[in-house]
Amino acid sequence: MFPGRIDPRKMQSMMKQMGISTEEIPAKKVIIETSEKRIVIEPCQVSAMTVQGQKTFTVAGTEREEAKELELSKEDVEMVAEQAGVSEKEAEKALKESKGDIAEAILKLKKE
After folding, report:
1. What's any GO biological process attached to this entry (predicted)?
2. What is the pLDDT of residue 25?
C-alpha cells in the first residue's frame, strides 16, 4: 500500500489521520457457525480495524471443521412423544436418528 520502508509509529499516525484505527484482540478461539457446519480456528490471532465507524475483523490461525450438532426443541420432542405414544427420551432418540424430521421420527416409532 505504501512504497518503501515506513516507521511503524509513522504508519500508525498516518492511519489515525485517515480515520483508521486497529487493535489486537486477545482471542483464544474463533467459532464460525454455518447452517451445515462449524469452523473452529484455534489457536488464532484476531485484529479489528475500524474505518469510518465500520469494524472489520481479521482472523488468522489453524482451522478445523466440525459437524454441526442437531438442535431439537422441547416442543418437537413432546409432540413426537405424544403422537407416537412413547417417552420423551425415546422420542428424542428417534428425532436424532431421523436428523430432526418429525414425521419420519413418528412413523419410525409407530412401526416399532
Report:
1. protein transport
2. 94
